[in-house]
Amino acid sequence: MALFGTDGVRGLANGTLTADLALTLAQATAVVLGQGRIAEARLATGKRLTAVIARDPRVSGAFLSAAVEAGLASSGVDVLDAGVLPTPAAAFLIADIDADFGVMISASHNPAPDNGIKIFARGGVKLPDEVEARIEEAMAGPKLQPTGASVGRVSRFSDAEDRYALHLLASLPNRLNGLHVVLDCANGAASGVSPEVFRTAGARVTVIGADPDGININEGVGSTHLDVLAAEVVRTGADVGIAHDGDADRCLAVDASGNVVDGDKIMAILALAMKRRGHLPADTLVTTVMSNLGLHRAMTEHGITVETTAVGDRYVLERMNQGRFGLGGEQSGHVIMSEFATTGDGVLTGLHLCAEMARSGKTLAELAQVMTVFPQVLINVRGVERSRATDADVVAAADAATAALGDSGRVLLRPSGTEQMVRVMVEASTHDEAQRVADELAEVVRG
Q1: Could you tell me which residue ranges the Alpha-D-phosphohexomutase C-terminal domain spans (predicted)?
Q2: Structural domain that includes position 284
């Protein structure tokens, strides 16, 4: 089984993801990422490679980051330890100081016992699949073992958080004066920086989920538990609630009445705001096949093209880079604003969503009316071969359902990337119709 998944290497910390594995992975990363033209030019002049490392506040992050630092430094790489910061902060800092690569220790929205290792290339971009495969192969090969003055140094990246905060504030088109924002930081990596930048931007801020103790990350708070945020927004009479996940690469929101505003609606609001300012290249939004049909319709009505990719932020970013597009993301709230970030940034997204509220004078509920959500039903058909999604009888049934729904719905069959399972997703004008069609297709998939 491949070591790298859809977003780095993840597993149970000290179970499948051990300090030994982290050290070996770091050593292999130094071997592979030290082979590029720029890296070799630096080495030829006697300069060591430089890497940025950051982590979320999971208790296991301390020993895993220490192992990664040991692996890199023992391979002749100078390491700048940025401490606890969001994943997008690590990506930004790599580009900001022109580091050769970087590592983020986080398992995002997973529970505290899990952890993960994400590797970013020069510029703060995620690694292509082929580079990850080379790193995995290099783990069994020879390591770099410099001695004496050639070993790497490990030092504290003392102004890392300040650099990131200033970058976020500089991105804003206007201040957030007059807004009362409730921030749910998921007891995660944004617990320090997110409240700081929202307050500095002019918002009145109420904070929940910002007391990380190493084991409470994502526990009953954050983007996977929006009921807590919704209740606090209503209780305090706030204008909006912003929820991050553990590493703050996602943003979901709730309006003043506690209604959820998901990634599709957030992208719709931001797309219109960016188009109005002339900051939406080619008037195009990039999203995945899972985004709601309502988003497609809303964008068409406003003269915005929607490009669709496979599920996964890496595919969204790949298409954005190919077309030089400025906005993309997923229904889950992983939104990429490429003018300011190389990956999803939940703090950046939340700031710009609130900036549009402050500029327009409209409530979040009013802004979210830009799109009408089509009822969506998702059924995970487990215990079947993933290839069932492309079998003739299944494809024929899906085509027939698509024809019957016409312009009022759509069907998506998608094999799981990690399990023996096929996902059946149906959108229709009513929930009952979506449920009926999904149930019928699921039966066909089961065979």
Answers
A1: 378-443
A2: 163-368
pLDDT digits (tens, 9 = 90+) for 314-343: 889 999 999 999 999 999 999 999 999 999
Q: Which of 158, 179, 197 is the last residue of a domain?
A: 158
- Phi then psi for 207, rounded to 5 degrees? -115, 135
pLDDT tens digits, residue range 234-248? 999 999 999 999 999
Same-domain pairing of 154 and 167: no
Residues 261 and 304 in one domain: yes
Q: With respect to residue 1, please indicate whether it lies within any of the assigned structural domains.
A: no
- Is 108 a known ligand-binding residue? yes
pTM above 0.85? yes
Catalytic entry in 60, 74, 108, 191: 108
pLDDT of residue 240: 98
* C-alpha dist (Å) from residue 139 to 16, 76, 262, 399: 16, 16, 40, 45
Do 195 and 127 lie in one domain? The reply is no
Q: Are residues 364 and 416 in the same domain?
A: no
Residue 287, domain member (yes or no): yes
Residue 247 counted as an annotated binding residue: yes
For 53, phi and psi rounded to 5 degrees? -130, 140
Is 223 marked within a binding site? no
**Number of structural domains found in the chain:** 3
Please indicate whether residue 108 is annotated as part of the active site: yes
Among the residue ranges 242-251, 286-295, 413-422, 433-442, the one predicted with the least confidence is: 413-422
Which pair of tokens denotes residue 319? Answer: 């298409």
